[in-house]
């Protein structure tokens, strides 16, 4: 899964089918997130 980084100067807010926005970090893996998200975070952490 590709991940992208960009500068953004607006306020992020949920709209349409997006119910909630959360900022997650590798240290948040104990938070209830999907197994796929955990794999992505681990891969990003290991390859950083």
Task: Describe it.
The protein has a domain at 21-48. It has one helix and no strands. Helix content is 25%, strand content 0%. The mean pLDDT is 81. The protein is an all-alpha fold.
Question: What key attributes describe this structure?
Answer:
single chain, 48 residues, mainly alpha, 1 helix, 0% strand, globular
Topology:
Blueprint: H1 35-46
Alpha carbon gap, first and last residue = 15 Å
Order of helices and strands: H
Bin the strand percentage.
Answer: under 5%
Name the shape in a single word: globular
Integer-rounded radius of gyration: 13 Å
The number of E-state strands comes to 0
Largest sheet: none
What's the rounded overall pLDDT mean? Answer: 81
Q: What percent of residues adopt helix (DSSP H or I)?
A: 25-40%
How many H/I helices?
1
Q: Note poorly predicted spans.
A: none
User: What is the SS-derived class?
Assistant: mainly alpha
A few lines on this structure:
With 48 residues, this protein is an all-alpha fold. The chain is built from one helix and no strands.
């Amino acid at each position: 899964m590709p991940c992208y980084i960009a500068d953004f100067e607006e306020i992020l807010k949920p709209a349409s089918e997006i119910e909630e926005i959360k900022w997650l970090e590798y240290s948040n893996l104990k938070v209830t997130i999907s197994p796929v998200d955990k794999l992505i975070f681990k891969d990003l952490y290991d390859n950083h």
